[in-house]
Amino acid sequence: MNSHLKHDLEKLKDGLMKVATAVEENMLKSVKALGALSTELGSDVVTTDMEIDKMEVEMEEECLKVLALHQPVASDLRFVITVLKINNELEHIGDMAANIARRISFLKKEPISTIPFDLGDMTSKTITMLKHAIDSFMSENEYLALEVCTADEEVDSVMRECFLKSEELLKKGEGMGCVNYLLVCKSLERIADLCTNIAEDVIYMRHSVIVRHNLQAAIRALKEDS
Amino acid sequence: MDNKTQDNTPQSNAVVSARDFCVYYGTHKAVKNINVDFARGKVTAIIGPSGCGKSTFLRCINRMNDLVDGCTTSGKLMLNGVDIYHKRLDVTELRRRVGMVFQRPNPFPKSIYDNVAFGVRLKGRIARSDLDEIVEKSLRGAALWEEVKDRLSSSALGLSGGQQQRLCIARALAIRPEVLLMDEPCSALDPKSTARIEDLIAELSGKYTIAIVTHNMQQASRVSDNTAFFYEGNLIEFGETAKIFTNPKKQETNDYITGRFG
């Protein structure tokens, strides 16, 4: 391979790793802030998210530069396109982490006797999905990516339970506190969706099959190539 | 590509078909058991590293290799189902039907008009008005008419490299070929002239079956409908260009087009 292209592709991978690390750390910080109902830590998350936004733009510019200068094809093209897409998904995850952090001040204003949902379970599932999604890209492991896609269904199921529980609580007269927690759950569920998108991008990068909206296609693609 | 397992019947829209086709230089087998169909009106790019047999294969399609000492073939190479290497085949007629454009433009040291009219005149006497019409049509077809219409009697050698190459294409078009072979037609041209030739290939596709040998991957991906990847005399992969350049089936193809070897 052209050594310039090789160098630039490695640079993209390193750059995306930095964005992913920043997003993952910020997400963990956001969950910590939520647990402690710390507005101070929450505002840290919001500030870091603005830095992540800048990193995303820089990464996108790097990808465009590689596309324009090297006009990559085949596996190299799929790699650059995947970086471009994952970069965007990560930035959205960053936004969701900031949304959770922003919710903290509302939760403090509208306290609730007991947290209505099993937030611990949902956050741990979502954090695992994020870690695995990032690892699947870094190690080019489409099987790990498939695990992420499958795990999304579990988070969706928790989210459905949260809705039902909220409905009950609202009927019993619980106010905004309940709604605020529901919005936190919605952000977590959205993060899980974005992790699934990353995993689908990894499957595309490895197998050149677009499996979005179709988990069965992902499973078939992996079976055919294994 | 498993050359042995392909169906032996040429596809119905195939203009050029190879079946178990081999080319030897003396005892050296330069092209090995090729099975491929070039579809009517489509542009096929032939890519591969130097010495992979792509130009050798291309030159067989109008039997240019007959001029090479010790060059022999086996298997079948067909034009519209007729064996190109049949002993009773009229080679001159074959070359009329299969035009060729080379790496470097090679206009004759004659006027622009006479260059285009050359092949037509060889076929026999023709009325001046008919010849004028053919020359104009061919120069228009090669996207050169507007640039030369006022100096048709000037020497072709006074044209720029890009114009000379388009003149050679016009010369090939004048004898109404079915197939146009292009052996690295832009390698001696600047980017602007290259773009003109590529535009021209796009205009000619549909009307002519075109096979183009190129070392320029971007050019192959831009101008062709199908791509054939040759390596060490074998046809490794053949398929739609969009697929070859996004998701080649063979690792060797991926490694070659991404510049990992060759």
Keywords for this entry:
heterodimer, A: 226 residues, mainly alpha, Methane Monooxygenase Hydroxylase, Chain G, domain 1, 7 helices, B: 262 residues, alpha/beta, Rossmann fold, six-stranded mixed sheet, four-stranded antiparallel sheet, 10 helices, globular, disordered N terminus
Give an overview in words:
- The complex is a heterodimer of chains A (226) and B (262).
- With 226 residues, chain A is an all-alpha fold.
- Chain A has a single domain (3-225), classed as Methane Monooxygenase Hydroxylase, Chain G, domain 1 (Up-down Bundle), CATH 1.20.58.220.
- Helices cover 86% and strands 0% of the residues of chain A.
- Chain A has helices at 3-36, 39-70, 74-109, 119-138, 142-171, 176-207, 215-225.
- Chain A is flat and about 65 Å long.
- The mean pLDDT of chain A is 92.
- Chain B contains 10 helices and 10 strands.
- Chain B has 262 residues and is of the alpha/beta class.
- A 6-stranded mixed sheet of chain B has the order 6-7-8-3-9-10, with helices on both faces.
- Chain B is globular and about 55 Å long.
- In chain B, strand 4 (71-79) and strand 5 (82-83) form a beta hairpin.
- In chain B, helix 6 packs parallel to helix 7.
- The model of chain B is unreliable at 1-6 (pLDDT under 50).
- Chain B has a single domain (3-257), classed as 3-Layer(aba) Sandwich (Rossmann fold).
- The longest helix of chain B has 14 residues, at 128-141.
- Chains A and B meet through helix 3 of A and helix 8 and helix 10 of B.
Counted by DSSP, the helix tally of chain B is: 10
Q: From the helix content, strand content and strand pairing of chain B, which structural class follows?
A: alpha/beta
Portion in strands of chain A: under 5%
User: Low-confidence parts of chain A lasting 5 or more residues at pLDDT below 50?
Assistant: none
Mean pLDDT of chain B: 92
Helix/strand class of chain A: mainly alpha
Q: Could you give the count of β-strands of chain B? A: 10
Question: How helix-rich are the residues of chain B, as a percent range?
Answer: 25-40%
The major pleated sheet of chain B works out as: 6 strands, mixed
Radius of gyration of chain A: 19 Å
CATH class descriptor name of chain B: Alpha Beta
Distance between the termini of chain A: 26 Å
Q: Judging from the principal axes of the Cα atoms, what is the shape of chain B? A: globular
CATH superfamily of chain A: Phosphate transport system protein phou homolog 2, domain 2
